[in-house]
Design brief:
Blueprint: E1 7-12, H1 23-27, H2 34-45, E2 50-53, H3 68-73, H4 85-91, E3 97-103, H5 109-122, E4 127-132, H6 137-142, H7 151-169, E5 177-180, E6 185-187, E7 197-198, E8 203-204, E9 219-222, H8 227-236, E10 239-242, H9 247-264, E11 273-278, E12 281-282, H10 294-312, H11 336-348, H12 352-357, E13 368-369, H13 371-385, E14 389-393, H14 401-414, H15 427-431
Parallel strand pairs: 1-2, 1-14, 2-3, 3-4, 4-9, 9-10, 10-11, 11-14, 12-13
Antiparallel strand pairs: 5-6, 7-8
Helix pairs in contact: 2-4, 5-7, 7-8, 8-9, 13-14
The structure holds flavin mononucleotide (FMN).
Length: about 425
């Protein structure tokens, strides 16, 4: 039986992706971009659609009200800005897409539109922008605000932000640059326009002072989970990032909902690709999960609980981690993950240590095993979901990378489930190949 053909993205950050797993040498080496340049080459050889950089603008300090364990475990920081890294990664590659995160809450639209246009030119049409509204109070305080506006208002602002960016990107028509030596005209002024944007939140005269970039706009990506978030992504995004919570039925429903919402807004749903974020765990030959040492277990637990403190806005240091998950924990941030944890405590007697030692996999989806087993599991899920791709969680898995690109991907290619060659050259063309 023919498999559903799917796309591949690789999720990472411009930081120490695998501390302490990959040791001291890697720990200090990534900041000059050399690691990610090599990564881009490896992923391009495996014909991934894109590398994706998440980002945030804080040093975490929610756990025990201290930065100590965030910094010790390299959870949220240190992190460098991924945008300047994209052109560096483009230098030694020719096709792989390069997507980075930037916040609509903190950037002025004109500056970000200009920056992304520049990066799309520098990468010859391979740039993408993950549009986030940011969710951390600490980030707000870094920009002189006491707190963030409520999520729905942040999305209202983001909608207008994107509308303005598109007008600015369109302020240069295709063919505006003529460089005609006979007439002496470099740019045809009839093809460059002011935008005179007057919104509720932003005003801008325009035009942008860049050239029109190879793709016109960078590819727009977003991960909406709430009602308002899904409305935003189905209106604006071309790459939508989904979670695998809810298993296959949940994935299917999420993808269908995004497609339906997009169609209602006059878009072609096939112009949107939904990528599901997933870890993979590849076992060495022999097919058994390697036993973790006690020190590795403790390190993973500490990393996970400190990370969760910042992302859920809960100080987990206050609780007994070996008792069933306390039912009186309240969160400042996303609550669905916390509800899931409390339920595991209530119904299965799980402790915080159980949950945070288990590592990832809260989705209930299991992509672990030998190279062949992982490939089979991915294909089985995608055959049922019907598309469009997986965003493979890279951080923390550097040692698995050779098995992924030299083992799992070739197995998927042999089965006809992923591409063996690029057809397009820009990121948008590559995403629309199938
Ligand atoms: C794969 C994935 C990547 C994300 N990357 C970021 C990121 O880099 N920075 C950030 O602030 N939020 C990030 N988010 C959070 C989303 O932007 C969004 O806020 C979240 O999915 C919740 O959806 P909602 O805003 O509709 O509630 C990411 C979410 C997912 C699923």
């Amino acid at each position: 039986m023919a498999h559903t053909k799917f796309h591949l993205g690789y999720f990472t950050k411009f930081g120490a992706t695998s501390w302490p797993g990959d040791g001291k040498e890697f720990g200090s080496q990534w900041a000059d971009g050399s690691y990610h340049k090599e990564l881009a080459k490896m992923l391009e050889a495996a014909k991934f659609d894109f590398v994706f950089f998440e980002d945030s603008l804080i040093v975490g300090d929610r756990y025990a009200n201290s930065m100590e364990l965030d910094l010790k475990n390299a959870t949220l920081s240190p992190k460098l800005d991924p945008l300047p890294l994209l052109p560096l990664m483009a230098q030694d590659t020719s096709h792989i897409g390069l997507i980075a995160t930037a916040s609509t809450t903190f950037y002025p639209p004109y500056l970000l539109a200009r920056l992304l246009s520049t990066i799309d030119s520098l990468t010859k049409g391979r740039a993408g922008w993950n549009m986030v509204t940011s969710s951390e109070r600490n980030a707000a305080m870094n920009f002189g605000m006491d707190k963030l506006l409520p999520p729905n208002e942040r999305y209202d602002i983001a909608d207008e932000f994107v509308e303005l960016c598109k007008k600015l990107w369109d302020s240069w028509e295709e063919g505006a640059l003529v460089a005609d030596t006979e007439t002496g005209v470099y740019v045809d002024h009839n093809k460059v326009h002011t935008v005179n944007f007057e919104g509720k939140h932003f005003r801008s005269r325009g035009p942008l002072n860049t050239l029109r970039s190879p793709q016109g706009y960078p590819v727009l990506a977003q991960a909406g989970a709430s009602e308002r978030g899904k409305q935003f992504s189905s209106k604006n995004a071309e790459v939508v990032l989904g979670m695998m919570t809810g298993g296959v039925p949940g994935m299917k429903a999420y993808r269908q909902e995004i497609r339906d919402r997009a169609e209602k807004q006059g878009r072609n749903p096939d112009d949107i690709k939904v990528f599901f974020l997933t870890p993979v765990e590849i076992f060495p030959e022999g097919g058994e999960r390697p036993e973790m040492t006690e020190a590795e277990k403790q390190s993973a637990f500490e990393h996970n609980i400190v990370m969760a403190s910042s992302s859920l806005d809960v100080d987990f240091s206050q609780y007994d981690v070996d008792a069933p998950v306390p039912q009186d924990i309240t969160a400042g941030g996303h609550t669905s993950a916390l509800e899931y944890m409390k339920k595991a405590g209530r119904e299965e007697g799980k402790s915080l240590r159980d949950l945070f030692s288990a590592g990832k996999g809260a989705s209930g989806m299991d992509f672990s095993g030998t190279v062949e087993q992982v490939a089979e599991k991915m294909m089985a899920v995608m055959d049922e979901v019907g598309g469009d791709g997986f965003l493979i969680e890279g951080s923390g898995y550097n040692r698995q990378l050779p098995d992924l690109v030299n083992g799992v991907i070739p197995a998927l290619q042999r089965a006809g489930a992923v591409r063996t060659e690029y057809e397009g050259t820009t990121l948008r063309e590559i995403l629309r190949e199938f």
